[in-house]
């Protein structure tokens, strides 16, 4: 008997055909396997037992990088094949294939890397069909070597034999290379001169040991590396990179090394060791050997395990951890080009460890955190992109341009949404160039040319202007918080109306105000704003984000009016009476002071009132410090809260501010105040949701927006809502912050064009 199997998903460029070849031979089947548009087609024939074993193992045992989304099986007539063969791929067929993300070096390659008898012993760019760069080296389709940066290298005979042998684990591994024919590592000093040494990797490790700062070329860009246990090195790195307090990511050899300084739970270990190798946010141990400067005044640390052979060759030299922070200057995109690294990173790095395999497309490290029983993305990039988000139904092609900060873009093709890697803050020219590059690249490798373009409502966003200037047939504006909620609905594959809680820092509201504490009834085609945090003045607009004490003044003045000065909080003096007076004047006269319902600013304000808000060196710092303050102690009573009703539910902040002030005056510890504040919010929001459930007869709640990066809030609120028997949807596939916006925009625009 014979069967034909059609396999869809990520099944090309991941070693699927050799896997099928070997499996068919094991099951004593004859036939053919070939790439088709969108997947693989397999014809197998033989006895029933063999066919059954083949079908069940195909789904269960695929190669590690494959992701099967669909297998269909049908009976076929016997063709009388004499063997099983891999048939050459048709070019046309490869156009709709999915490109795999970059993958960390695999166990087999590691074994060879550290085996003195292997011909690739110590080869810093070792890879195979199951591992190595993919997304970042592909320039065009089909995914063949001439379309990758590896075209610059001609395989030696030995490598070519591996590449052509279906039974070899390097069969059709496009980046296949060795010492004889492939790219090589070099070590340069700050002036770009080659450092005389035997092995560049060993020499680089010893420079790190001595406390030097190195720029190290990775998969999707350069890192800045230094010994994380060396205080001087860490301090010097911060000074040179002008990065004052934002946490620095570190890399350790294995989970055992990580446990010297951080707590690693079972789920976190799975994340750390997964072949996506994200940065995982872990709880720091109270006493640990890392320099305090890694993540000052922060209970967590971002950790990843090595993912390229170069990382392994460095870390085997007994470091507890190396700092591995993005190789960029202030908010600019991560640097990918050797010459650019030499010229621009010279002000930070003492030495450069690089190689001559180009990076075609930049891709930052992904960042995840285990919260409320699931993995949450803070940043989605290397290892995950460009794997698609599967949508509930097919849509017309759309390009969505995303938001301003933490920008990503999204392209929809059929029932798949391709959310790009994190592009960054679209506030400088370099990031914008990267934004355009990514859009053009994705269009090319996905073979799409959308006639619908979606963008934010904000008239001044660079992404909005891009959309206006790149004339698609249909341009659709999407409100920021609507996009947040729809991104969460899309990844959870729900469509119908739901109660959406969209809490974040800033988004352009339909009424021209700054929104960010929004409750809406949302569906793809429309939303109804039914509630929000009551408005407060935001003196100086975006300057209030950098100086959270401004929001503190704003909330206090709104609550206590002219009694303000009697409050006499300790930080009044630090900030200076004069500056506070100016802010109050701005509020009174409504000068450069938009109104905001932002939940993020509310957190900033509370942090400011407690005295944590004199200055934020990165967005959300005060709110993060506020969350980190909380201990495990029981906080007792919570604050009074209320909301006004009518056609709009307004959550009033005055009773909460009053409660916080009373506690400060009583000398209650800041950690308790923070705990009470969080619990009050949870009680207020979940209570209001019950009212809304009755009014609208809806039981589904969707949570989205950057504020839900707050682990305590997300955990507490989902628990409270679960107790009230709500059906709750949170993010698991894209970030809850503005990195998820493009997905929501895309789905909304596609639905509008559909309907
Ligand atoms: Zn490998
Ligand atoms: Zn070779
Ligand atoms: Fe947002």
Keywords summarizing the entry:
755 residues, alpha/beta, Alpha-Beta Plaits, DHBP synthase, Nucleotidyltransferase, domain 5, eleven-stranded mixed sheet, seven-stranded mixed sheet, 24 helices, 33% helix, binds zinc ion, binds fe (iii) ion
**CATH topology value of the domain at 185-355:** DHBP synthase
Arithmetic mean of pLDDT: 94
Unreliable stretches covering 5 or more consecutive residues: none
What's the shape?
globular
* Number of β-strand runs: 29
Question: What would you say this structure looks like, in words?
Answer:
Strand 15 and strand 16 form a beta hairpin. The radius of gyration is 27 Å and the shape is globular. Helix 15 crosses helix 18, helix 15 packs across helix 21 and helix 19 packs across helix 20. Among the domains are: 85 residues, Alpha-Beta Plaits, CATH 3.30.70.100; 171 residues, DHBP synthase; 164 residues, ATPase, nucleotide binding domain (Nucleotidyltransferase, domain 5, 2-Layer Sandwich), CATH 3.30.420. The chain starts with a strand and ends with a helix. By secondary structure, the chain is of the alpha/beta class. Strands 6, 7, 8, 9, 10, 11, 12, 13, 14, 15 and 16 form an 11-stranded mixed sheet that branches. A 7-stranded mixed sheet has the order 26-27-23-22-21-28-29, sandwiched between helices. It contains 24 helices and 29 strands. Fe (iii) ion (FE) binds next to helix 13 and strand 21.
